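sorry for the late reply, my laptop died twice this morning and i had to redo everyting from scratch. anyway the thing you sent over, i finally got around to it. pasting the sequence first so we're on the same page, its 423 residues, then the predicted structure underneath. double check i copied it right bc i was rushing
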Amino acid sequence: MTVLLGCIADDFTGATDLANILVRGGMRTVQTIGVPTAGTDLPACDALVVALKSRTIPAADAVAQSLAALAWLQAHGARQFFFKVCSTFDSTDAGNIGPVADALLEALGERIAVVCPAYPANRRTVFQGHLFVGEVLLSDSPMRNHPLTPMTDASLVRVLGRQSRHPVGLLPWSAVSAGGPAIEQALAALVAQGARHAVADAVRDEDLFTLGAACRQRRLLTGGAGLALGLPQNFRAAGLLPERADSDPPLCVGGGAAVLAGSCSEATRSQVAEMASRQPSVLIDPLAGGTPVELAASALRQASGALGRGETVLFYSSADPATIAKVQSRLGQEQAATLVEQTFAELAKGLLAQQVRRLIVAGGETSGAVVAALGVQALAIGPQIDPGVPWTRVLGEQPLLLALKSGNFGRPDFFSRALEMLR
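ok and here's the structure:
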């Protein structure tokens, strides 16, 4: 297999977000769960997205996994590489975006790489190096209360500068909006100043297309899925990618459906409230006591009647910041997160045993735990539900559909509309 674009994503929902962009741009795209093992059989494709669960693990482990993914993608002929990070730049001062971006930059021998998490379709924009969520700075958004990666600084130059071993510069909107030659001139100036990462402003989709075109000869880009908008056209213009309409895999899979919501983001909480008002729901309470196996078994017992009647059941641990603080004070941050993730992993296995074959999973960490528990190795990307979130079909013998949703994405009725697409 030889691919054009090799992508490394630091979580599973971000990987599907990126894959969705590439499919809509006419690239046949496959998403793998982790670095494929020798002998893994994958269909022919133009882009490969290796989904890692590396966003919040120790930085050294994130670097090692990312370099392994890079080596695998290089062995399969990738010409350009994309390090996919969250559009809200989820990280701490210890990493992991900076350490991984440094390692990839050095492994590829690149002098400088553009960094841009902007995604206007999902109301993420960057101006003067500051990340905005809707109309407010990142530091004033609900992300300031994230239980694992609280984002209290909106300046990406500062945030990345605290994580990277190398100087970080700004590629301002005045250069981006002026087009390719101005971008190249600005990047050359940053290189002369010693910068290795260039945080790029982008406030419109047009800016992302412009950045993509300007980076056609650069081997590494770091950013959110929006930065990939212009990449398919680069390969097409070079005669490497044919004109191709979107090709969605069939979604006609029988069996029951369930929603697993582990994210505590404001968007997911509103989606949980909307669905809980109309469908059977079960709260996963980490303070209820018990192991993940016991908590999952209890949840399945509570839902047994509804599942038996063929109803869609919502299982959720989503909670407001005050409740999260209470849980973390009792259990500790790491133990609380692990308990919830492992409970959803056990719950997913139990649902699969009960012939549930359509799962919506909300939250990057929750999605990672679920796909690992189910032994998923690769995904084909299907139709888009909301910007950044497609349905996917698990590649393999067992029929299974997954919608892996970043906690921050989707309108309040996301769960209902996703299920309606399958009817």
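The CA atoms of residues 174 and 261 lie 41 Å apart.
thats about all i looked at so far, will dig more tmrw
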